[in-house]
Request: fold
Amino acid sequence: MSFHIVVCGSLVPDPLQTLEPMQGPTGPALKNEMMLPAVLDPWAGHALFEAATLAANVPGSKVWLVSLGPKAKLQQLMMSIAQKVAFDLVAVDGPAGGFLDAFETAEALAGAIDGIAGLEKDKMLLFGGCASSSRDASVTMQLIGERLGITDQFLAVDELKPEADGSFQIMERIEAGEYLVSKCAGAPAMVGWATGNLPEPPNNPQVGMQNMRTVMPALQQAKPAQVGTGDVNFTKVEVPQQRRETKIVKDTPVEEIAADIVAWLKG
Reply:
């Protein structure tokens, strides 16, 4: 039993940069957002690496990466991740800011997935991050799954083990550092990945050249998507202010220290 694995993942601003929110002409945005260097969303990266490893271990499987973002920024991103693992790119031209509406984002991505030539829905595994370092609504993957008719959904997954009969075992994070272990009879299914178990693959120039044969045509054929902030109205956006108050004490009982901390938090 082979799998058709569709990974939803896009770019986010490099977290090492200073991100300053502001009110733009169409709603909230980041200052100089188009000038900020971009990286693949970390959770989406885990999903992509897990998908590529699964496809390599299950003969006949294939991986698609569906990305929503400005074409120019997506092209820059592909130059860095195309050498990691093999995939076919499906690009959607649109904004990729941190204030986008999850419903509109899911609608655009589900439409792009529906248009993938050769995709067999009965073999499909829909992969993505369980969250995002940009638009962390934590519902986008579920909404995409529902639009595609996928009702078997798993979130915060760290491990997926396929079986010979096409079924697979999934480990989902739950509270107290424990896992919920489930067995799914087979595709289709939606898997929202946490950190997984795999490191970032090293660069492979041969994989990069193979991917770029399809990346550039995909970017040129990317259809525009009308994605925005929906009906949400932001009255104010700002970076949380850092606050530090230091108090040096000596030979103070633990109970008093705890009481001081509680009083500080209440204040």
Notes: The longest strand covers residues 153-162. The radius of gyration is 21 Å. Helices lie at 42-57, 71-81, 102-114, 140-147, 205-220, 254-266.
